[in-house]
Specification:
The chain is mostly beta strands. About 15% of the residues lie in helices and about 40% in strands.
């Protein structure tokens, strides 16, 4: 490869601003099943317990939906936020700033009560997170509280003011903690101080999936985006480019199903984002439900959708097609996935047809940089990278193309300071196709992949 071509390709890779997903905006027909009896309520939150029973937090109390029956628990008053932990304990965030523990209608206790209530600017609880023996919660005025609830009398171990309305929390005091607010994203490592991460204006929701934390929010370039938080003090964001012709202004809530599909509630329908494949799809839910404020997901993949106005619907999610891009394939998500036992697909490193640049330039740059930094900081690590092509005019031509792509990647990693002893590039061409007879562009794209495997010594 000529130095001029290599320099051009690197500039092309680095200068592209955002990920481009392959699925364009489309109108998909779905059937929402309406749930009656909520017209007079303001729905503030949804949650599902261990028996897949839906609980609805409203301005008039809690409502339990068990099949077609509704059970109202009105004496708990207005509830801003509802968390149900793995033991089916319910943690209620109140409009007046209190936090209650509810395990049974006859067993309710106050966990937290603010010293005073500012009537001019109410500090209602906006989010709650439970992890091991810590209970953390935030309010509308930016106050974060972390309590040790295993203590006989729950004690506060941290109480700090931050900026903005706290929307979401993921607290793990032994490792990394994250806080999403109306002012951006905050991070804390063990006993260090909280610091604000750059690049995000707002983070609405955070959720753990397969030992990673995912979120939704707004970037400083005013792009609605999916956010992936890594364990190495970095994060990636992937702007949503499948937005409908009618503009979406707000991302309100999200859940992630068993198949790695993130379902995002917006003010104009539903978005499905596949966190492994990087694909995005807009789903039109009108006229039944346009603005979706809250989501909840059962273990059998029943999705609950609600609007603050009191509209409540359900949708049974179908499993993805059996010919999904990575059926039965292991996907690389972070450097900690690396193993000498498994071959992992670098999910964002798909080359353009017969070219050396990537379909998803921003995502590819982030994934390559993350891997390069990890290799530089772990000099004993040895990896093999297998470069595959799709089906082409001849095996010889495709092998030559794979060799050119291997040289391109080799130059990239050298420029990042990775030792040549750490990486072994193996061009495979079209000798190991995932789809031997690809019929669709998605199948051809899946063939043009890069795989990584650790070398055991």
């Amino acid at each position: 490869m000529s130095p001029h071509l290599c320099r051009y390709l690197l500039l092309t890779l680095i200068s592209t601003c955002f990920i481009t997903v392959t699925t364009q905006a489309q109108k998909k027909s779905i059937q929402l099943i309406p749930q009656e009896g909520f017209g007079t309520y303001q729905i503030n939150d949804l949650a599902v317990d261990g028996q897949d029973t839906l609980w609805v937090a409203t301005n008039k109390g809690l409502i339990q939906q068990n099949g077609i029956f509704l059970e109202e628990i009105t004496y708990v008053g207005s509830i801003n936020y509802l968390l149900i932990d793995q033991d089916s304990n319910k943690w209620l965030g109140k409009y007046d700033g209190q936090v209650w523990h509810f395990s049974h209608p006859k067993n309710i206790s106050t966990i937290f009560k603010p010293d005073s209530i500012d009537k001019k600017y109410n500090r209602g609880i906006t989010t709650i997170h439970r992890n091991q023996h810590w209970l953390s919660f935030g309010d509308a005025s930016g106050h974060l509280h972390i309590m040790d609830i295993d203590h006989p009398n729950p004690i506060s171990i941290e109480s700090i003011p931050l900026e903005g309305n706290i929307h979401s929390l993921f607290i793990d005091l032994d490792h990394y903690s994250y806080l999403g607010s109306s002012e951006g994203l905050w991070q804390k490592k063990r006993d260090r101080k909280w610091k604000q991460l750059e690049g995000l204006l707002m983070v609405k929701s955070l959720q753990s999936h397969n030992e990673q934390v995912w979120g939704i929010g707004l970037t400083t370039k005013h792009e609605l985006a999916v956010i992936r938080l890594n364990i190495i003090e970095e994060y990636s964001h992937f702007p949503l480019t499948c937005l409908p012709p009618i503009t979406i202004h707000h991302l309100n809530d999200m859940v992630i199903d068993h198949y790695g599909r993130m379902w995002i509630a917006t003010d104009n329908g539903l978005i499905q984002y596949h966190i492994y494949e990087g694909t995005c799809k807009w789903i039109d839910t009108s006229p039944q439900l346009t603005i979706i404020d809250h989501l909840a997901l059962t273990s059998d993949q029943q999705l609950w959708l609600a609007a603050e106005s009191g509209a409540l619907f359900s949708l049974q999610l179908d499993p993805p097609p059996t010919d999904s891009l990575y059926t039965n394939q292991a996907i690389y998500q972070s450097p900690t996935d690396l193993s000498c036992e498994d071959t992992l697909i670098l999910s964002h490193l798909h080359f353009e047809v017969n070219r050396l640049d990537f379909l998803q330039a921003e995502a590819a740059e982030q994934q390559l940089t993350e891997l390069a930094n990890y290799l530089v900081n772990n000099r004993d690590l040895r990896l093999q990278l297998f470069i595959h092509t799709s089906k082409g005019e001849s095996p010889e031509a495709m092998l030559d193309l794979a060799k050119a792509r291997a040289d391109f990647l080799k130059s990239y990693f050298r420029s990042k300071g990775v030792s040549k002893k750490q990486l072994h590039f193996i061009p495979k061409g079209m000798s190991a196709l995932l789809y031997p007879d690809p019929q669709r562009s998605e199948e051809r794209r899946a063939n043009r992949r890069v795989e990584v495997v650790g070398v055991c010594e």
